[in-house]
Amino acid sequence: MAEPRYQRRKQDRPKEITEAAFDVFAEHGYASARVEEVAKRAGVSKGLLYLYFKTKEELFKAVIRSVVIRRLDALLVTIETTELSSEAFIRGPLLEFMKRVPGSPVAVVIRLLIAEGQRHPDLVDYYWENVVSKGLGAIARCVERGVERGEFRDTAVTQLPQLLVAPMMVSMIWKILFAKRTLDTDKLMETHIEMVLAYIKL
Amino acid sequence: MAEPRYQRRKQDRPKEITEAAFDVFAEHGYASARVEEVAKRAGVSKGLLYLYFKTKEELFKAVIRSVVIRRLDALLVTIETTELSSEAFIRGPLLEFMKRVPGSPVAVVIRLLIAEGQRHPDLVDYYWENVVSKGLGAIARCVERGVERGEFRDTAVTQLPQLLVAPMMVSMIWKILFAKRTLDTDKLMETHIEMVLAYIKL
Amino acid sequence: MAEPRYQRRKQDRPKEITEAAFDVFAEHGYASARVEEVAKRAGVSKGLLYLYFKTKEELFKAVIRSVVIRRLDALLVTIETTELSSEAFIRGPLLEFMKRVPGSPVAVVIRLLIAEGQRHPDLVDYYWENVVSKGLGAIARCVERGVERGEFRDTAVTQLPQLLVAPMMVSMIWKILFAKRTLDTDKLMETHIEMVLAYIKL
Amino acid sequence: MAEPRYQRRKQDRPKEITEAAFDVFAEHGYASARVEEVAKRAGVSKGLLYLYFKTKEELFKAVIRSVVIRRLDALLVTIETTELSSEAFIRGPLLEFMKRVPGSPVAVVIRLLIAEGQRHPDLVDYYWENVVSKGLGAIARCVERGVERGEFRDTAVTQLPQLLVAPMMVSMIWKILFAKRTLDTDKLMETHIEMVLAYIKL
DNA sequence: AATGAATGAGTATTCATTCAT
DNA sequence: CATGAATGAATACTCATTCAT
Among all strands, which nt has the closest C1' to B5 (CA)? Predict the structure, then answer.
């Protein structure tokens, strides 16, 4: 009767909890987030929460990790397998991806990492390995391939993929801090990409 | 030779305290910073600290403000009064300034604001008015002048000075989070400026 | 044989705590009472205490209220339903009641109210409505009935029931302040009642 | 030029301080009164205050004592030397005196004693010896004299002078606690005296 | 004598974590 | 597994008192 639901919930518990935790951390930051509030929002008792996550810190790490994994992989695969020219890829899928990031949970994670990173170096390492280094590596390879194919000049951009994503970072910070001051972040990123391409195209 | 327990330095106290507080907040963030440690580092009793700052929050705000004011004004004045061409100014003083920021206390303040901004909107407003809006405004005017003088094309950059400072933001975040992964932030900014100038120059 | 550290007595806790708190407030007054001592006497951790009472002030109010409610109602009912003559009632149940008050917890509450009333006007209001105004009202009605029945003259006593309870107040204050100086408070009240009755009887 | 004032102030300092302290204690009670506020209101530095009174408690005691002494003596002398009959004295000077008390500083002192008495037994002793026992003794003697002179019957009132002052106590407590509920305290005391006299007169 | 900056012990309150049920 | 009552260490803030000036 009600059992299937019960079964299902049991399976989903960790996810339900990290999702509730994500919201709470997003709202209050790590230090000011209450474990109790996480439990309440997850519809779970405090005790049960501690059954799944040994400490608040564990929970925090789980939250960061759970958000991180998803999104990126699709992009990475596309980069490796795409048949588009590098320019087309940058103008298309990459720009699209960058536009989505500042409003996504990733922005929250970045904020949490900036705030708490110093006290959780392993988390930063994790994030570095799974997101930043992978992401930047993929972009670098995309540019490289453009160079190899004779689309692009060989410029510092090949070594510094950060140059491509910089406006995404700015947009993210802007949304976090200055939400009430409008900024056309799409335009920002489009123009930036334009600029970069003008600079590197042969 | 014992240090005097009493010192009576009403004039210097606020600065001594905010400086100690800056260090502590920089290390731990707002929530995890202990008032007692601030006092200890300032070589002062907890009680005295509360004589100068009514609450921990007040102290935090004083710290943010004390860091903010200084640096920027010199640059702004230079922008308004310089006899350099816009290009020369951007390549010279502005780039220099941008290179210095990521390693300066401003980076710490940014980090604190990103972490705590949501709970201290007045602080964000303060920062916006005194730093961001002023700074971006000055850069925008510099570009504008370049356009007026026939140095530059009229591009989106005129409306989006964020495009110029984006790599500075990236460098800052990088230093905060990934200090141990080297990144040639100077090269990053130089290349970026190169790119922008190539894009906007007639 | 070690006492269990955990007890789980949600039902009884509030009463256990307010009772301990009553003792502590009685001994030290509000301001000098330490929450920690209340907890200790209640055999409870400080944290638990705050689970039941949001603040020390809340606890204080709960204590006052918990003492107030009880005692009076029986008397009030008796006054309304008694078949005794007013004189017999005053000489009997009322006098008995008055004799008991100065040694009862009510005396403590009065002391606390006198001490702290100014800073807790709502508590004074509460006490006024639930005790003083009810009690004086009932006594007034008792006298009035005596007048209606032709037992008593219509004197100022009808309007000023305080005249009947005055020696109870004196006895209370005396016990609070001058416990070590003996005073036959029973005799005091008996004589007083005698005096009043002599004055109002036809 | 300004010297005389300086001299004068020096003489008056203790009085100025205790007067300021009286106000502050009256407003906040002992525990919640700030020494700093006393100093400020006395127009004196905290340090100087501690030159005159070793501790807050000393200051408190000085305040209590300073208020106590005055008023009573005049009455006592009058009682001993009056040529009025006892009845006339009670109806006249004594009643007048009683009427003045509830609105006088004495009421404040009583409140402070009720609140703090337990922790300052010596103060209670002091008050007992200098005020209560003297005052009640004098009233008792007045009644006694009435008995000796054949004005009054020999009743319990002779032994329990509290019976005469009871409504004064009630009025005092009333003003302290229920200031906003009107009570004709003069009428209360007049009627009471009437009652007592009717009871004890031959 | 006079000041008020400085001290530090003391206290209410919070919250991650535990554990009897 | 699940609960939430219970714990207690941690921490911001206060205020009587001291003492260099």
Answer: E6
Does residue C59 lie in a domain region? Answer: no
Q: Has residue B168 been placed in a domain?
A: yes
Q: Which residue is nearest to nucleotide F9 (CA to C1')?
A: C47
Distance between CA A144 and CA A159 in Å, rounded? 9
| Gap between the Cα atoms of D43 and A122, Å rounded | 60
Are the CB atoms for C63 and C18 separated by under 8 Å? yes
Is the Cβ atom of C36 within 7 Å of strand E at any atom? yes
C129 domain-assigned: yes
Q: Do C170 and D162 touch (CB under 8 A)?
A: yes
Residues D17 and D73 in one domain: no
Does the pLDDT at position D157 exceed 50? yes
How many residues does this entry show for chain D?
202
Find the CATH number of the domain harbouring D24.
1.10.10.60
Note the strand E nucleotides within 7 A of protein beta carbons. 1-21
Does residue D29 reach within 7 angstroms of strand F, measured from its CB? no
Residues of D in contact with C118 (CB under 8 A): 27, 29
Q: Which residue has the higher pLDDT, A77 or A91?
A: A91
Please give the tally of structural domains in chain A. 2
- Which structural domain, as residue segments, surrounds residue C42? 1-54
Amino acid at D39: A
One domain, residues A147 and A184:
yes
Are D196 and C198 in contact (CB < 8 Å)? no
Global confidence as pTM: 0.89
CATH code of the domain in which B79 resides? 1.10.357.10
Indicate if CB(A195) is under 7 A from strand F.
no
Q: What is the pLDDT of residues C49-93, one digit of tens each?
A: 999 999 999 999 999 999 887 668 888 888 888 899 999 999 999
Burial D48-87 (b: 16+ CB within 10 A, else e): ebeebbeebeebbbbbbebbbeebbeebbebbeebeeebb
Residues 45-74 of C with CB under 7 A from strand E: 46-47, 50, 54-57
Is residue C183 a part of any domain in this protein? yes
In terms of domains, do D100 and D124 share one?
Answer: yes
How far is C76 from B33, CA to CA, in rounded Å?
A: 59
Task: Give A156-162 contacts, CB < 8 A, sequence gap 24+.
Answer: A156/B187, A156/B191, A157/A196, A157/A199, A157/A200, A157/B191, A160/B183, A160/B184, A160/B187, A160/B188, A160/B191, A161/A136, A161/A137, A162/A136, A162/B167, A162/B170, A162/B174, A162/B183, A162/B188
**pLDDT for B1 beyond 50:** no
b vs e for A161-176, b when ≥16 Cβ sit within 10 Å of the residue's Cβ? Answer: bbbbbbbbbbbbbbbb
Whole-number Cα distances in Å, A105 to A63, A70, A166, A172: 11, 11, 18, 11
CA A51 to C1' F1 (Å) is 9
D134 alpha-carbon distance from chain centroid: 12
The per-residue pLDDT for C10 is 73
